[in-house]
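pasting for ref
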Amino acid sequence: MGAEATNHAALGRRRGRPRIDLRRLGRAALSGPGSRDGLPDAIDHVAKVHRGHHPGADLDVLRQAYVLAESSHRGQTRKSGEPYITHPLAVTLILAELGAETTTLTASLLHDTVEDTEVTLDQVREQFGEEVRYLVDGVTKLEKVDYGAAAEPETFRKMLVATGNDVRVMSIKLADRLHNMRTLGVMRPEKQARIARVTRDVLIPLAERLGVQALKSELEDLVFAILHPEEYARTRDLVAARAGRTDPLEATASGLRAVLREAGVAAEVHVRPRHLVSVHRVLLRRGQLTGADFGRVLALVEEDADCYAVLGELHTCFTPVVSEFKDFIAVPKFNLYQSLHTAVAGPGGEIAEVLIRTHQMHRVAEAGVIALGNPYAAEGPARPAPAGEREDPTRPGWLSRLLDWQRATPDPDTFWTSLRADLAEDREVTVFRADGGTLGLPAGASCVDAAYAQHGEAAHACIGARVNGRLATLSTVLRDGDTLHLLMSRDAASGPAPDWLEHARTPAARIAIGRWLAAHPAPDPIAPRVPPVRSGDRPSGPVPGAGSGGPAGGCGRPAEGERSGAEGRAVSGERPAEGERPGAEARTVAGQRPAGGVRFADQDQPGAGERRAAGHPAAVAAGRDAAVRLAGCCTPVPPDEITGFAVRGGVVTAHRAHCPAVGRMAATGRAPVAVRWAGARDEEAHGYRVTLLAESFSRPHLLADLTEAIAATGAAVVSAAVEAPREQRVRHTYTLQLPAAARLPELMRAMRRVAGVYDVTRAVRQVATAGS
């Protein structure tokens, strides 16, 4: 409810298809022709515009609404001194020109009566029905948005709820704000700036997301004039200076018309001027403007297939800029927008942007959800909606998501911050789901955001992703056109890791993760720890971490009571990482016997250090009477290719041929010793140890499942180390004693078959083994 004042200087327009001139129509509504069809003079122009979009509309209800509004506001004036009724009339005319249906126009005429006069909602219901009452009530709840910065968070929360229940509420609010912005001049400069900032931060992005480009463009120019007057004046002068010159876009448009006429494709081709903010953005992006930067070529056709026919002729007869092509018909934008975008080199060499769409697509591009009419007139049974809401068939998917997370955010300030951050995202990427659907996400969104956009709170169970067929971390930033396959855990106890918040960009994901983490706090870091296991102890309980409470057990974060870091690798004989404390934090489990039948090699097993079976040497040195010991860094197993090096004591250590240690020793000048496997039969060639590295997605019971798979092959666990999960991935290192060397391939296949394991390889690293 702003006050009328002198408008900003008229924006420069270029030749071509005329755009919706809402200001001219507003003035005409207040000085329309005489009474016609029994309508008051002031409403006659609104009626004519409305009949242009809806020839069969019932105008009597508009007459009744105007009479009630005019009599209710009689005696009230705006700050400019004009009768107050001019404001609802102007708002109604804006919506009529955009093609709004009769119910929306009726509510817009009455949108200030309940707040500013003695008219009640019950009176509105009795005279105009429940639909109009609902819309008037929704708009009334939003009126405080213009006043008081402290009330903004909760006010916009209500605005979002009202918009989600019926997008026509926001349509009226946007038209109301547009008229107020046009007449903002009588306000104090500081108040103008405050209202302009709120419009820029929230209402313009909402207009964008509702697809109402006609309102969005003019609001942007009005805000631009208030907040950046110098840049506004400079841009306006650039447009005005260009107006009298030859337009290179006209040459491109003329050429396209001739090409389409010859090809028999019926189309209207126009030059569509950019609004001032769009020109300013091009200037900032490119540093200078060419004649083709002040507008675009627009081709309008009847059918979807004709769009592609125009595209084919355009790219055949003009040189296309391939990187500028976008198909928003096959993949519509989040705000229902559909069009083909491309760019070609014109006759003079200047790059001209071209838009191709049907007439219906053009109406939706200009008016968005307003062009879709009454959402509740759609045929078919009504869809279920949450309690207290009505399901709006035209509600965009992003709005449904916003409604979900606003219900999950009790704090208005948190909601306000998240809303502004979300609305500030003016670019979107389209990601193709593995099941054939698509996801619209803000630019810079990660796999975490995609998971919550697709699955809601069920995304807590996400354990990984494949992007374009390749395994990727959940922190991977998605690009336009990526194909995404989310990997989900079947365990209901899975939950997100705290570091997911670092990768989540959308409010929906951040709020859902925050709620889960708040409901599942991490264990107290100063809680009493389990005493260390001493050498020789034989505890009868399970291996720490072997069950669901192990470090691999949580989906992204340990379960309550778990340890992390070096302590989380508590199933290992592995040497602690540099900087970690030995002892209690890194415990050997050699000799432990967990429930589940996993067999561990005893520490006092004879020959454990040299990994030889009694009476059967593993390998022999050619031409030497020397003992051969299999290296612990690469754990060779028949039939691996091996080579040896003499060490102190006359012993020869056998390494796998591709072990890094072989290269290092050869580089120092040490001569290799020829060694070969002793050739014992497989059933006798037991006692070999091998170190395997299993890489997997973290999930509950993973360690238990892996150890069961190992036990099923008859292998014994010498030591096991589990690294703390990172980005939902966990690495297990096992040193195993094989029942027979030939069983190694079978063992690796069995481990790979465990759910969540995506790779098992031979480890090449120094492992501290029991008894060494």
